[in-house]
Amino acid sequence: MAAKKLSLKDKYSLLTRDLDWEFSYQDRKEAFPFEEFEGIKITDWSKWEDPFRLTMDAYWKYQAEKEKKLYAIFDAFAQNNGQLNVSDPRYVNAIKLFLTGISPQEYQAHQGFAHIGRQYGGVGARVACQMQSLDELRHVQTQVHAMSHYNKFFDGFQNWSHMQDRVWYLSVPTSFFHDARSAGPFEFLVAIGFSFEYVLTNLLFVPFMSGAAYNGDMATVTFGFSAQSDEARHMTLGLEVIKFLLEQHEDNVPIVQKWIDKWFWRGTRLLSLVGMMMDYMLPNKVMSWQEAWEIYFEEAGGALFKDLARYGITMPKYAELVEKEKEHVSHQTWWTFYTHGHAAGFHTWIPTDEELDWLSEKYPNTFDKYYRPRWELARKLEAEGKRFYTKALPQLCTTCQIPMLFTEMDDPTQISYRDTVYKGERYHFCSDGCCDIFNDEPEKFVQSWLPVHQIFQGNCGGPGVEQVLGEYYKMNLGADNLDIKGSPDEKRWKQWKGVA
Amino acid sequence: MTIEIKTSTLEPVRNTFAHIEKRFGDKPATRYQEATYDVQAETNFHYRPYWDPDHELNDPRRTALVMADWYAFKDPRQFYYGTYVQQRAKMQESAESSYAFFDKRNLVDALNDEVKTQVIRYLVPLRHVEHTANLNNMYGTAYGYGTAITQALLFDGMDRLGVAQYLSRIGLLLDGNSGDALNEAKQLWMQDPAWQGMRALCEESLVTKDWFELFLAQDLVIDTLVGELFYQQLDRKLSAQGGQDIAMLTEFMQEWSKDTGRWVDAVVKTAAAESDANRVLMTGWIERWRGKAAEALAPLAEEMLGAEALSEALAELDKRVAKAGIQ
Fold it and tell me: Known SUPFAM superfamilies for this protein (chain A) (predicted)?
């Protein structure tokens, strides 16, 4: 008997789809209890289109081949002291930000996908989420291994695990993922799978990995290439889930729209860290933040939302505001880090002449008018031996947890403040977007663990900032923080390179 | 004569990350250590989950088991993602060549009807048991505590999806890719009296809330008994009846059992050695699930293998439990 040939789709379906069954002995809702509380209506899980149709044996095979190549490069990188080939020691601070700010979130993505990979009632969707959970674990572990060698030669990497739950600016990405993970299973997938992985991932992943390529960081760029095919799968899953939710029931449309609005806004706030990295931290620039935003959001995202219009989905709220902000946020953010450079776990610096000119060219409407004068002032103070560090702790936005550093867009000299009163307490925000998010879920956001509030409440050691940084954050003061000028990183680099 | 290639050596500032140094001293760390220890966040969670407002996002109190250090659960295989997929890739490569050989040589035609019937009746429905194990291990991944154990649970969960898919392929080899064997096995799973105890047990495991209890129920109790009955005893019976080629298709599962068993035994032993309270708790859980599983498997084991089969399997389980330090 000759067996008939099965198409990949049929084979995958036979191998996977029919594994689940209707319960007879327990209430199935007890086994999958979180599917209904968000108001999302799933009428038929079998309509789920499996986006990858990847069986486990194929997964092991492909991923093992990728891992083998990746670790061969890591080994060669370490053996040949590949860190000596980076463009400039300033570059290394970009990957300090990556390891402390991004890698722990890969882990949270792994946890979040494990949660929904257990909880969805449809086996096809579950399996896709389980694989993503496994991929995200891969990403955090390969990132730690890629950075492991840098940690041996540079400061600022060594305490990433301790810092992830504590440091003021790291609460921005951390709270972003806590927000998604503490949400219901469908909001999580819209937040991370769609808004983050599909709409915004190119603005995170591409800048860091291209930055690595442009700056001679072979370990990180090899990780980037290796993770690319995983990311492509994740993007496919993100798009599939949106279409699935919208096609299941028309009542889902306004809920999904609200989540897209929320997570678009939270995502753009989070990405201000990437913007500053691209414009200020990369010695060899890839492109400006503004250019990246135009290519990856305005063009690609614009086409996507045009496609989703047939479901009744519109462009995320405040997208037009971000179109203005793209000319400002990276400058405002790096300035904040520069002036709080004693409290950062990486080094900061004033852009070189060449870099200031590049910024002028890339930001003709804003840089010379608003931001170049600040750097000229900073340079004057530095030349006088008065490198400026602010003494004050910043006020934080209750939602995104970024210090109040963004300005009004019609007046870039005026800081943007919003506030609202809930149960007799006043809460502060950086924007209408963040204020809206709070107003929609106040019981959630009153719980925000705001690092500055916590310092003032005495929950982070103290009483002085030095104790908070040294004892509670466990930064090596004088090594991890402050300006790159005069830092141990810089001294070692000069020694290795044989320059005085 | 050895050839020494000269490379420039630079003195490192430190050997490893601070949290690894704190645990293992100031020396170069292994990749397992850097990928595993203290990776999961432990404090300052911003919001309580809507789906579990009584706990933090990462919370050790989702089980009654208490550990001073959740990273005591070292995986003896030292699996992190990279080592895990590479090890499984080797296993799948050899499984793939067995399945291809079985198919190419039409070994299915060499099986007598008695063997074929038993494979469809006893082996193929196990894919639903494996699917349950997939979910139960994902449960521990999602709600467990500390990367050392949760990553190993994830690997186990994904393995079980793989095993479920291999079992499905056995069905497809037997039915010439029509899917009839899978449908027949599903009918047995849903309706045949012999399988109902097992299905009820699976459903009960899926509503169990304590993740460590569930780990013991699934990965220790149920897996030991299922492994013993289906992959050892049934395998011997089928071989004796002229179905020895089936062993080519279940070799993966046998090898997997050995590999994963090492990790399960290490976890059980470590948890029990931690405190008397843990040991008492675990004894209760194991007894309870041993009773349920024995009851669920009894009709199936007797029909499939005879009166002694289940007690032999239970004896294996008891031996394993005792070896882990639980009476």
Answer: Ferritin-like
Do B142 and A165 make contact, defined as CB atoms within 8 angstroms? no
pLDDT digits (tens, 9 = 90+) for B220-275: 999 999 999 999 999 999 999 999 999 999 999 999 999 999 999 999 999 999 99
Please check whether residue A398 touches B, CB under 8 A.
no
Boundaries of domain holding B171: 80-323
C-alpha angle A366-A372-A375 in degrees, rounded to nearest 5 = 145
Q: How far, rounded to the nearest angstrom, does the alpha carbon of residue A417 sit from its chain's CA centroid?
A: 24
Is pLDDT of A493 > 70? yes
- Give the total number of structural domains in chain A: 1
Domain membership flag for residue B223? yes
Q: Could you tell me the two tokens for A1?
A: 């008997």
Phi, psi of A415 (to 5 degrees): -65, 140
Distances in whole angstroms, Cα of residue A50 to Cα of each of A129, A194, A220, B116, B177? 11, 16, 31, 31, 20
| A176 to chain B, closest Cα gap in Å | 9
Residue B69 lies in a domain: no
Whether A152 maps to a domain, the answer reads: yes
8 Å CB contact between A479 and B14:
no
Closest CA to A455 of A403, A405, A420, A419: A403
**Residue A323, exposed/middle/buried by CB under 10 A (0-12, 13-18, 19+)?**
middle
CATH code for the domain of B274: 1.10.620.20
Q: Is residue B287 part of a domain?
A: yes
Asked if residue B252 belongs to a domain, the reply is: yes
Which of A9, A25, A52, A174 is the mutation pick for testing B, counting most B CBs within 10 A?
A25
Q: Residue A447 maps to which CATH number?
A: 1.10.620.20
B296 to B118, B197, B198: CA distances (angstroms): 19, 4, 5
pLDDT in tens, B285-307: 999 999 999 999 999 999 999 99
A383 in a domain, yes or no?
Answer: no
Calculate the CA A105 to chain-centre distance.
Answer: 7
Provide the pLDDT confidence category of residue A2 given band limits of 50, 70 and 90: low
Give the amino acid at B122: Y
Number of domains in chain B: 1
Residue B278: per-residue pLDDT: 98
Q: Mean pLDDT of all residues in chain A? A: 95
A118 and B178 in contact by Cβ < 8 A? no
Whether omega before A463 lies within 30 degrees of 0, making that bond cis, reads yes
Query: In chain B, what residues touch A100 (CB-CB under 8 Å)?
Result: none
**In angstroms, how far is the first alpha carbon of chain A from the final one?**
80
Q: What is the mean pLDDT of residues B53-65?
A: 98
**Mind giving me the DSSP string for A237-284?**
HHHHHHHHHHHH-TTHHHHHHHHHHHHHHHHHHHHHHHHHIIIII-SS
A55-65 as b/e, with b when 16 or more CB fall inside 10 Å? bbbbbbbebbe
The answer on pLDDT for B8 being more than 90 is: no
Residue A166 lies in domain: 53-349+388-497
